[in-house]
From TrEMBL:
Residues 7-81 form the ACT domain. Belongs to the acetolactate synthase small subunit family. Pathway: Amino-acid biosynthesis; L-isoleucine biosynthesis; L-isoleucine from 2-oxobutanoate: step 1/4; Amino-acid biosynthesis; L-valine biosynthesis; L-valine from pyruvate: step 1/4. It holds the Pfam family ACT_AHAS_ss. NCBIfam families: acolac_sm, PRK11895.1. Dimer of large and small chains. This is Acetolactate synthase small subunit. It comes from the Bacteria. The keyword Transmembrane does not apply. Its EC number is 2.2.1.6. It is an enzyme of class 2 (transferase). PANTHER family: ACETOLACTATE SYNTHASE SMALL SUBUNIT (PTHR30239), ACETOLACTATE SYNTHASE SMALL SUBUNIT 1, CHLOROPLASTIC (PTHR30239:SF0). Catalyzes the conversion of 2 pyruvate molecules into acetolactate in the first common step of the biosynthetic pathway of the branched-amino acids such as leucine, isoleucine, and valine.
C-alpha cells in the first residue's frame, strides 16, 4: 500500500489537555502528524482540529478508530471521503535589496500575496491558499533568500451544506450528529450532558 498524506478533522470538547491527549495518542502509536490546526467552531464549547497524517490508508483508519474512543472526541471527518475546500496561511520573510525589491513585489502580486511588513533589507508576505499555492510561492521566493517562514497548517470544510454531507463521512459509533444537536451543558459532576457510557 502507498504512503500518502491524509487530511482529517475532529470536533472535540474545548477543555484543558484535550490537545495533549490526542497528540499523545498519535505519538504512542508512531503516527506522524504533518500539520495541525486548532480553532473554535460555531458551537460554544467545541473546537475543530484539522491534521495531516502521513501513512498507509489502513494506518490512518486505525488512528481514526483510536481517536473515536477518546471521551473528548465528538466527531471524526475523513476528508478523503468527500469533496472539500481547504486553505493554509503562510508568512514568508524574503531578503531584498535595491535591485531585487521590485522583482520580488511583482512576483508576489502573481500569488496575491500581501505585504504585512516592509524593511530596507526584507519584505514579509502573507499568502493564503491551498497547499500547492503555498508551496509554489515559497519555491518562487527561495532564490531571493528566505529569512523566515511560518505555516499555519491546513484547515478544511466539506463542500455544501450539512444536509448534503453523506452519513459515511461520520465514521464510527460516536452518534456525533445527535449529540451536537444541542449545546453541551456541564453537569455538577464535571462531566458533560450527552456523554456516552
Amino acid at each position: 500500500m502507498s504512503v500518502q498524506d491524509h487530511l482529517v478533522s475532529a470536533l472535540v470538547r474545548d477543555e484543558p489537555r484535550v490537545l495533549t491527549r490526542i497528540t499523545s495518542l498519535f505519538g504512542r502509536r508512531g503516527y506522524n502528524i504533518g500539520s495541525l490546526s486548532v480553532g473554535s467552531t460555531e458551537t460554544p464549547g467545541v473546537s475543530r482540529m484539522t491534521f495531516v497524517v502521513r501513512g498507509e490508508r489502513g494506518i490512518v483508519e486505525q488512528a481514526m478508530r483510536q481517536l473515536e474512543k477518546l471521551h473528548d472526541v465528538l466527531k471524526i471527518i475523513d476528508h478523503s471521503e468527500e469533496k472539500f475546500v481547504d486553505r493554509e496561511l503562510v508568512l514568508v520573510k524574503v531578503a531584498v535589496d535595491r535591485e531585487t525589491r521590485l522583482e520580488v513585489r511583482q512576483m508576489a502580486e502573481d500569488f496575491r500575496a500581501r505585504i504585512v511588513d516592509a524593511g530596507r533589507q526584507a519584505l514579509t508576505f502573507e499568502v493564503t491558499g491551498d497547499e500547492g499555492k503555498i508551496t509554489a510561492f515559497i519555491e518562487q521566493m527561495r532564490p531571493f533568500g528566505i529569512l523566515e517562514t511560518m505555516r499555519t497548517g491546513r484547515v478544511a470544510l466539506i463542500r455544501g451544506s450539512n444536509a448534503d454531507i453523506a452519513s459515511h463521512v461520520y465514521a464510527g459509533q460516536t452518534q456525533a450528529l445527535e449529540r451536537m444537536s444541542e449545546p453541551l451543558q456541564p453537569r455538577e459532576t464535571g462531566t458533560w450532558e450527552g456523554d456516552v457510557g
